[in-house]
Amino acid sequence: MLVRVLTSLVGIPLFLGLLFIGQWPFLVVVAGMGLIGFYEYARILRAIGFRPSLPLGCAATVAIVLAAGLLPPHGVHAQAVAALATLVILAWAIFRPEGFSALDGLLTLAGVAYVGLLSYLVLLRRLGGGSGWDLGLVWAGMAFLCTWAADTLAYFVGVTWGRHKLAPKISPQKSVEGLLGGVAGALLAGLLWGPAIPLARWQGALLGAAIALVAAMGDLVESALKRTAGVKDAGRLLPGHGGVLDRFDSSLFVLPFVYYVATLLFGAG
Question: What is the pTM of this model?
């Protein structure tokens, strides 16, 4: 726990500082996260005998993240690069090297789609221009503040009052009580942060509660992946936290959710 707290005390301010700065320093960091994230994904699958293409998967994931940051945000951006990456990987799956199966190709594609969700962090940050205290920053703040509040409250409520298992076959330690605590924590965070966007307080609270549920789904997806492979952590990059996928598993689903809420429901961008 001490190592976990110390890592958070160093890592969170550093990450928030880069989030505030935005622009190319932040893009480089997120691209690096995508590279490491796909490596961790491939490492998990290799533990159960599959062989996703590490070079193709890493290259495609980084390309999608960079496209989200470098191409016009309202035009054909990450989707076009994602489509191209899909064609390349499917071609590799068909004309694959000896020793690789078609399933390996599909799992490579699945990993790019999964880890490539980090591109929505870049798209979200670009909503208001991509640097300083702007619209993109406050929307990204909503996503992370509510996710962290949900994770924190879910942990402490679950440890203290957790009695009913949420998904015992996937993650035996998670409880229904913990989930409800996480929803309450994110609801409160959304209530407080919503006016900064600006949203009505009830809208912020409702969005916070929804973020908590989406975050729980993201957490369970990665837990299922690790449980199938019989590994505790996806990586070792962050002492006490594991790897990129361990730290951002909840956020991978939250980021596109918040991005589309911001752009489709509230006209951000």
Answer: 0.91
